[in-house]
Amino acid sequence: MIQLQQTSPLTTEYLESLGFVWHTDSDATPYVSDQLVILSKAEAEAYYKAGNELYDMFVAAAQYVIDNNLFHEIGIPFNLVELIKESWETDIHWHLYGRFDLAGGVDGSPIKLLEFNADTPTALFETAIVQWALLKQNGMEETAQFNGVYEAILDNFKRLVTLEENVATFEACYEGWKFLFTSVRGNSEEENTVRLLQHIATEAGYITEFAYMDEVEFDENEGIFYNQEQYELWFKLIPWEDIALEEPDLAMILTNIIKNQKAIIFNPPYTLLFQSKGLLKILWDLYPNHPLLLETSFEPLQNTKQVQKPVFGREGESVRILDENITLIEGTEGDYDNHKMVYQTYVELPSDSKKSSYQAGLFFAYESCGVGFRKGGKILNNTSKFVGHLLLDS
Q1: Which of 7, 125, 204, 331 is least surrounded by CB atoms within 10 angstroms?
Q2: Is residue 307 within 8 Å of residue 322, measured between CB atoms?
Q3: Where does the record place the Glutathionylspermidine synthase pre-ATP-grasp-like domain (predicted)?
Protein backbone atom coordinates (compact mmCIF):
# COMPACT_ATOMS: atom_id res chain seq x y z
CA MET A 1 0.00 0.00 0.00
CA ILE A 2 1.14 3.53 -0.78
CA GLN A 3 2.55 5.34 2.26
CA LEU A 4 1.78 9.06 2.48
CA GLN A 5 3.14 12.07 4.38
CA GLN A 6 0.64 14.79 5.28
CA THR A 7 1.71 18.42 4.65
CA SER A 8 0.17 21.85 4.85
CA PRO A 9 -1.16 22.74 1.38
CA LEU A 10 0.28 25.54 -0.71
CA THR A 11 -2.05 28.52 -0.90
CA THR A 12 -3.50 29.56 -4.23
CA GLU A 13 -1.80 32.93 -3.83
CA TYR A 14 1.59 31.29 -3.43
CA LEU A 15 0.99 28.91 -6.37
CA GLU A 16 -0.02 31.81 -8.59
CA SER A 17 3.10 33.71 -7.55
CA LEU A 18 5.03 30.77 -9.06
CA GLY A 19 2.99 30.99 -12.26
CA PHE A 20 1.00 27.87 -11.45
CA VAL A 21 -2.53 29.06 -12.16
CA TRP A 22 -4.26 25.69 -12.85
CA HIS A 23 -4.33 24.87 -9.13
CA THR A 24 -8.09 24.22 -8.86
CA ASP A 25 -10.09 21.64 -10.78
CA SER A 26 -13.48 22.28 -12.34
CA ASP A 27 -15.21 20.77 -9.27
CA ALA A 28 -13.49 23.46 -7.10
CA THR A 29 -11.16 20.93 -5.41
CA PRO A 30 -7.36 21.45 -5.29
CA TYR A 31 -5.48 19.86 -8.18
CA VAL A 32 -2.33 19.42 -6.07
CA SER A 33 -2.60 16.97 -3.17
CA ASP A 34 -1.43 18.08 0.27
CA GLN A 35 0.03 14.60 0.81
CA LEU A 36 3.36 13.26 -0.45
CA VAL A 37 4.12 9.73 -1.61
CA ILE A 38 6.94 8.32 0.52
CA LEU A 39 9.69 6.79 -1.61
CA SER A 40 12.82 5.01 -0.44
CA LYS A 41 16.11 5.91 -2.09
CA ALA A 42 16.22 2.39 -3.52
CA GLU A 43 12.81 2.91 -5.15
CA ALA A 44 13.95 6.22 -6.64
CA GLU A 45 17.11 4.56 -7.95
CA ALA A 46 14.98 1.83 -9.53
CA TYR A 47 12.89 4.47 -11.34
CA TYR A 48 16.10 6.16 -12.52
CA LYS A 49 17.51 2.94 -13.97
CA ALA A 50 14.19 1.93 -15.52
CA GLY A 51 13.86 5.21 -17.42
CA ASN A 52 17.39 5.01 -18.79
CA GLU A 53 16.91 1.42 -19.94
CA LEU A 54 13.51 2.13 -21.46
CA TYR A 55 14.82 5.09 -23.42
CA ASP A 56 17.51 2.98 -25.07
CA MET A 57 14.83 0.42 -25.95
CA PHE A 58 12.63 3.12 -27.49
CA VAL A 59 15.53 4.30 -29.66
CA ALA A 60 16.11 0.75 -30.89
CA ALA A 61 12.38 0.24 -31.55
CA ALA A 62 12.13 3.53 -33.48
CA GLN A 63 15.09 2.51 -35.63
CA TYR A 64 13.34 -0.81 -36.27
CA VAL A 65 10.19 1.02 -37.43
CA ILE A 66 12.23 3.19 -39.81
CA ASP A 67 14.30 0.31 -41.18
CA ASN A 68 11.20 -1.80 -41.82
CA ASN A 69 8.87 1.01 -42.92
CA LEU A 70 6.29 0.30 -40.19
CA PHE A 71 4.99 3.87 -39.90
CA HIS A 72 1.46 2.94 -40.99
CA GLU A 73 1.36 -0.02 -38.59
CA ILE A 74 1.92 2.21 -35.56
CA GLY A 75 -0.47 4.93 -36.75
CA ILE A 76 1.95 7.60 -37.97
CA PRO A 77 0.22 10.03 -40.37
CA PHE A 78 1.66 9.61 -43.87
CA ASN A 79 2.38 13.33 -44.23
CA LEU A 80 4.85 13.25 -41.32
CA VAL A 81 6.93 10.25 -42.44
CA GLU A 82 9.41 12.29 -44.47
CA LEU A 83 9.71 14.84 -41.65
CA ILE A 84 10.33 12.08 -39.10
CA LYS A 85 13.04 10.49 -41.23
CA GLU A 86 14.70 13.86 -41.84
CA SER A 87 14.84 14.67 -38.12
CA TRP A 88 16.01 11.18 -37.15
CA GLU A 89 19.07 11.24 -39.37
CA THR A 90 20.98 14.16 -37.84
CA ASP A 91 22.09 14.79 -34.26
CA ILE A 92 20.98 18.43 -34.22
CA HIS A 93 17.36 17.32 -33.71
CA TRP A 94 17.88 16.69 -30.00
CA HIS A 95 15.09 15.25 -27.85
CA LEU A 96 14.55 17.88 -25.17
CA TYR A 97 12.41 16.00 -22.65
CA GLY A 98 9.68 13.39 -22.23
CA ARG A 99 7.71 11.59 -19.51
CA PHE A 100 7.32 7.86 -18.96
CA ASP A 101 4.05 6.79 -17.34
CA LEU A 102 4.75 3.81 -15.11
CA ALA A 103 2.84 1.40 -12.91
CA GLY A 104 4.38 -0.03 -9.75
CA GLY A 105 7.74 0.70 -8.21
CA VAL A 106 6.36 2.01 -4.91
CA ASP A 107 4.99 -0.78 -2.77
CA GLY A 108 7.17 -3.67 -3.80
CA SER A 109 5.36 -4.17 -7.10
CA PRO A 110 7.55 -4.24 -10.22
CA ILE A 111 7.89 -1.19 -12.45
CA LYS A 112 5.93 -1.57 -15.68
CA LEU A 113 5.83 0.80 -18.65
CA LEU A 114 2.36 2.08 -19.53
CA GLU A 115 3.37 4.60 -22.22
CA PHE A 116 5.88 7.31 -23.14
CA ASN A 117 4.70 10.90 -23.51
CA ALA A 118 7.64 11.94 -25.63
CA ASP A 119 6.28 14.80 -27.74
CA THR A 120 4.25 17.19 -25.56
CA PRO A 121 4.34 15.85 -21.99
CA THR A 122 2.33 17.69 -19.33
CA ALA A 123 2.89 17.83 -15.54
CA LEU A 124 6.30 19.44 -16.06
CA PHE A 125 5.56 22.47 -13.85
CA GLU A 126 4.11 20.29 -11.11
CA THR A 127 7.03 17.86 -11.07
CA ALA A 128 9.87 20.35 -11.45
CA ILE A 129 8.57 23.24 -9.31
CA VAL A 130 5.40 22.61 -7.27
CA GLN A 131 6.42 19.44 -5.44
CA TRP A 132 9.75 21.06 -4.54
CA ALA A 133 7.87 24.12 -3.23
CA LEU A 134 5.70 21.85 -1.10
CA LEU A 135 8.82 20.58 0.70
CA LYS A 136 10.22 24.09 1.08
CA GLN A 137 6.99 25.63 2.45
CA ASN A 138 6.63 22.78 4.97
CA GLY A 139 10.15 23.21 6.30
CA MET A 140 11.32 19.86 4.93
CA GLU A 141 14.73 19.10 3.50
CA GLU A 142 14.50 20.44 -0.07
CA THR A 143 16.84 17.79 -1.44
CA ALA A 144 14.72 14.91 -0.07
CA GLN A 145 13.23 14.33 -3.51
CA PHE A 146 14.18 12.62 -6.79
CA ASN A 147 13.76 15.85 -8.69
CA GLY A 148 16.46 17.30 -10.91
CA VAL A 149 14.02 18.05 -13.74
CA TYR A 150 14.76 21.79 -13.97
CA GLU A 151 18.53 21.31 -14.00
CA ALA A 152 18.38 18.38 -16.43
CA ILE A 153 16.32 20.34 -18.96
CA LEU A 154 18.64 23.33 -18.57
CA ASP A 155 21.63 21.14 -19.42
CA ASN A 156 19.72 19.54 -22.30
CA PHE A 157 19.04 23.00 -23.74
CA LYS A 158 22.81 23.52 -23.76
CA ARG A 159 23.27 20.15 -25.50
CA LEU A 160 21.29 21.47 -28.46
CA VAL A 161 24.52 23.36 -29.15
CA THR A 162 27.24 21.14 -27.70
CA LEU A 163 25.61 17.88 -28.94
CA GLU A 164 27.42 15.90 -26.26
CA GLU A 165 27.09 15.05 -22.57
CA ASN A 166 29.55 17.74 -21.51
CA VAL A 167 27.84 21.16 -21.61
CA ALA A 168 30.84 23.20 -20.39
CA THR A 169 31.57 24.42 -23.92
CA PHE A 170 28.09 25.90 -24.50
CA GLU A 171 29.12 29.54 -24.10
CA ALA A 172 32.05 29.10 -26.48
CA CYS A 173 29.95 27.25 -29.09
CA TYR A 174 26.71 29.29 -28.95
CA GLU A 175 26.50 31.55 -32.00
CA GLY A 176 23.47 33.57 -30.97
CA TRP A 177 20.72 31.48 -32.55
CA LYS A 178 17.37 32.79 -31.34
CA PHE A 179 14.80 30.52 -29.67
CA LEU A 180 11.04 31.12 -30.14
CA PHE A 181 8.60 29.46 -27.69
CA THR A 182 4.99 29.01 -28.79
CA SER A 183 1.68 27.85 -27.35
CA VAL A 184 -1.92 28.13 -28.42
CA ARG A 185 -3.80 31.20 -27.17
CA GLY A 186 -6.26 30.80 -24.29
CA ASN A 187 -4.80 27.77 -22.49
CA SER A 188 -3.09 29.02 -19.34
CA GLU A 189 -1.63 25.60 -18.43
CA GLU A 190 0.06 25.18 -21.79
CA GLU A 191 1.16 28.81 -21.97
CA ASN A 192 2.75 28.83 -18.51
CA THR A 193 4.46 25.49 -19.17
CA VAL A 194 5.94 26.96 -22.35
CA ARG A 195 6.94 30.12 -20.50
CA LEU A 196 8.68 27.96 -17.86
CA LEU A 197 10.67 26.27 -20.62
CA GLN A 198 11.48 29.69 -22.09
CA HIS A 199 12.73 30.78 -18.66
CA ILE A 200 15.00 27.71 -18.43
CA ALA A 201 16.35 28.29 -21.95
CA THR A 202 17.06 31.92 -21.13
CA GLU A 203 18.94 30.85 -18.00
CA ALA A 204 20.90 28.38 -20.15
CA GLY A 205 22.10 31.35 -22.22
CA TYR A 206 19.79 31.58 -25.25
CA ILE A 207 18.21 34.66 -26.78
CA THR A 208 14.50 33.81 -26.39
CA GLU A 209 11.04 35.14 -27.22
CA PHE A 210 7.43 33.97 -26.70
CA ALA A 211 4.59 34.12 -29.24
CA TYR A 212 1.15 32.62 -29.62
CA MET A 213 0.76 30.17 -32.47
CA ASP A 214 -1.42 32.55 -34.52
CA GLU A 215 1.34 35.18 -34.40
CA VAL A 216 4.07 32.97 -35.90
CA GLU A 217 4.81 33.08 -39.64
CA PHE A 218 6.16 30.09 -41.55
CA ASP A 219 7.98 30.20 -44.90
CA GLU A 220 9.25 26.92 -46.35
CA ASN A 221 12.17 28.70 -48.03
CA GLU A 222 13.04 31.31 -45.39
CA GLY A 223 12.09 29.75 -42.04
CA ILE A 224 10.12 30.77 -38.93
CA PHE A 225 9.37 34.42 -38.08
CA TYR A 226 7.76 36.49 -35.34
CA ASN A 227 7.53 40.28 -35.57
CA GLN A 228 9.67 40.07 -38.73
CA GLU A 229 12.49 38.46 -36.72
CA GLN A 230 13.78 35.08 -37.85
CA TYR A 231 14.16 32.30 -35.27
CA GLU A 232 16.51 29.39 -35.85
CA LEU A 233 15.05 27.33 -32.97
CA TRP A 234 11.33 26.79 -32.33
CA PHE A 235 9.55 25.06 -29.44
CA LYS A 236 5.85 24.26 -29.78
CA LEU A 237 3.62 22.51 -27.24
CA ILE A 238 1.34 21.30 -30.02
CA PRO A 239 1.20 17.57 -30.78
CA TRP A 240 2.74 16.56 -34.09
CA GLU A 241 -0.24 14.35 -34.93
CA ASP A 242 -2.57 17.36 -34.54
CA ILE A 243 -0.42 19.30 -36.99
CA ALA A 244 -0.54 16.37 -39.41
CA LEU A 245 -4.29 15.83 -39.21
CA GLU A 246 -5.60 19.37 -38.66
CA GLU A 247 -2.92 21.52 -40.35
CA PRO A 248 -1.64 19.45 -43.31
CA ASP A 249 -0.40 22.55 -45.15
CA LEU A 250 1.67 23.52 -42.11
CA ALA A 251 3.06 19.97 -41.91
CA MET A 252 4.28 20.32 -45.50
CA ILE A 253 5.81 23.75 -44.83
CA LEU A 254 7.60 22.48 -41.70
CA THR A 255 8.95 19.53 -43.66
CA ASN A 256 10.54 21.90 -46.14
CA ILE A 257 11.79 24.24 -43.41
CA ILE A 258 13.69 21.33 -41.84
CA LYS A 259 14.91 20.00 -45.21
CA ASN A 260 16.12 23.50 -46.11
CA GLN A 261 17.84 23.74 -42.69
CA LYS A 262 16.05 26.98 -41.85
CA ALA A 263 15.00 25.98 -38.33
CA ILE A 264 15.20 23.19 -35.76
CA ILE A 265 11.93 22.24 -34.04
CA PHE A 266 11.39 20.85 -30.52
CA ASN A 267 10.45 18.27 -29.59
CA PRO A 268 11.71 16.79 -32.87
CA PRO A 269 9.24 15.12 -35.26
CA TYR A 270 10.72 11.68 -34.57
CA THR A 271 9.41 11.86 -31.00
CA LEU A 272 6.02 11.00 -32.52
CA LEU A 273 7.41 7.48 -33.01
CA PHE A 274 8.04 7.28 -29.25
CA GLN A 275 4.66 8.89 -28.53
CA SER A 276 2.71 6.32 -30.56
CA LYS A 277 1.38 3.55 -28.34
CA GLY A 278 1.81 1.36 -31.40
CA LEU A 279 5.50 1.34 -30.50
CA LEU A 280 4.57 -0.57 -27.33
CA LYS A 281 3.72 -3.51 -29.58
CA ILE A 282 7.03 -3.18 -31.41
CA LEU A 283 8.85 -3.08 -28.07
CA TRP A 284 7.14 -6.32 -27.00
CA ASP A 285 8.15 -7.95 -30.30
CA LEU A 286 11.79 -6.87 -29.85
CA TYR A 287 11.99 -7.51 -26.09
CA PRO A 288 9.43 -10.26 -25.34
CA ASN A 289 8.80 -10.79 -21.61
CA HIS A 290 11.13 -7.94 -20.66
CA PRO A 291 10.48 -7.20 -16.95
CA LEU A 292 9.71 -3.51 -17.62
CA LEU A 293 7.15 -4.22 -20.38
CA LEU A 294 3.55 -5.39 -20.57
CA GLU A 295 2.42 -7.55 -23.47
CA THR A 296 0.85 -5.33 -26.11
CA SER A 297 -0.86 -6.25 -29.38
CA PHE A 298 -2.83 -4.66 -32.21
CA GLU A 299 -5.46 -7.35 -31.63
CA PRO A 300 -7.33 -8.17 -28.39
CA LEU A 301 -5.25 -10.44 -26.14
CA GLN A 302 -6.69 -13.89 -25.47
CA ASN A 303 -7.77 -14.85 -21.95
CA THR A 304 -6.12 -11.76 -20.48
CA LYS A 305 -7.49 -8.77 -18.62
CA GLN A 306 -6.32 -5.84 -20.71
CA VAL A 307 -6.53 -2.13 -21.54
CA GLN A 308 -7.64 -0.91 -24.95
CA LYS A 309 -6.25 2.52 -25.81
CA PRO A 310 -5.75 4.63 -28.94
CA VAL A 311 -2.27 4.93 -30.45
CA PHE A 312 -2.65 8.70 -30.02
CA GLY A 313 -4.77 10.01 -27.17
CA ARG A 314 -4.62 12.46 -24.30
CA GLU A 315 -5.77 12.62 -20.66
CA GLY A 316 -7.13 9.09 -20.47
CA GLU A 317 -9.80 9.63 -23.12
CA SER A 318 -11.14 6.68 -25.17
CA VAL A 319 -9.51 4.14 -22.83
CA ARG A 320 -11.27 0.90 -21.84
CA ILE A 321 -10.48 -1.87 -19.37
CA LEU A 322 -11.59 -5.28 -20.72
CA ASP A 323 -11.85 -8.58 -18.88
CA GLU A 324 -10.49 -11.97 -20.02
CA ASN A 325 -13.52 -12.36 -22.30
CA ILE A 326 -12.95 -8.93 -23.88
CA THR A 327 -16.01 -7.58 -22.11
CA LEU A 328 -15.98 -3.96 -20.98
CA ILE A 329 -15.35 -3.45 -17.25
CA GLU A 330 -14.75 0.27 -17.23
CA GLY A 331 -14.10 2.93 -19.86
CA THR A 332 -13.92 6.61 -20.70
CA GLU A 333 -15.47 8.63 -23.49
CA GLY A 334 -13.24 10.76 -25.67
CA ASP A 335 -12.28 12.19 -29.02
CA TYR A 336 -9.79 9.49 -29.99
CA ASP A 337 -12.03 6.54 -30.92
CA ASN A 338 -11.14 6.99 -34.59
CA HIS A 339 -7.48 6.16 -33.94
CA LYS A 340 -6.01 2.69 -34.26
CA MET A 341 -6.16 0.80 -30.94
CA VAL A 342 -3.62 -1.26 -29.03
CA TYR A 343 -4.35 -3.85 -26.34
CA GLN A 344 -2.02 -3.91 -23.33
CA THR A 345 -2.06 -6.39 -20.47
CA TYR A 346 -3.80 -4.82 -17.47
CA VAL A 347 -1.73 -4.17 -14.38
CA GLU A 348 -3.12 -2.99 -11.05
CA LEU A 349 -1.78 0.41 -10.00
CA PRO A 350 -0.56 0.86 -6.41
CA SER A 351 -3.25 2.27 -4.14
CA ASP A 352 -3.66 3.99 -0.78
CA SER A 353 -5.96 3.20 2.15
CA LYS A 354 -8.84 4.94 0.36
CA LYS A 355 -8.36 2.77 -2.77
CA SER A 356 -7.13 5.67 -4.91
CA SER A 357 -4.72 4.53 -7.64
CA TYR A 358 -1.27 6.07 -8.16
CA GLN A 359 0.67 6.27 -11.42
CA ALA A 360 4.27 7.46 -11.60
CA GLY A 361 5.34 10.08 -14.14
CA LEU A 362 9.09 9.77 -14.70
CA PHE A 363 10.71 12.66 -16.58
CA PHE A 364 13.59 11.99 -18.96
CA ALA A 365 15.96 14.66 -20.27
CA TYR A 366 19.13 12.92 -21.52
CA GLU A 367 18.66 10.67 -18.50
CA SER A 368 15.95 10.01 -15.93
CA CYS A 369 15.70 13.19 -13.87
CA GLY A 370 12.62 13.28 -11.63
CA VAL A 371 9.34 11.68 -10.70
CA GLY A 372 5.86 12.80 -9.65
CA PHE A 373 2.56 10.95 -9.26
CA ARG A 374 -1.03 11.19 -10.45
CA LYS A 375 -3.84 9.94 -8.21
CA GLY A 376 -7.31 8.88 -9.33
CA GLY A 377 -9.41 5.92 -10.33
CA LYS A 378 -8.50 2.87 -12.40
CA ILE A 379 -8.15 5.10 -15.49
CA LEU A 380 -6.31 8.34 -14.80
CA ASN A 381 -7.70 11.37 -16.64
CA ASN A 382 -7.87 15.16 -16.44
CA THR A 383 -9.65 14.97 -13.08
CA SER A 384 -6.75 13.09 -11.47
CA LYS A 385 -4.71 14.88 -8.82
CA PHE A 386 -0.99 15.61 -8.80
CA VAL A 387 0.90 14.15 -5.83
CA GLY A 388 4.51 15.00 -5.00
CA HIS A 389 6.89 12.73 -3.17
CA LEU A 390 9.31 12.61 -0.28
CA LEU A 391 12.50 10.54 -0.13
CA LEU A 392 13.17 8.72 3.09
CA ASP A 393 16.17 6.52 3.86
CA SER A 394 14.23 3.33 4.49
Answers
A1: 331
A2: yes
A3: 13-390
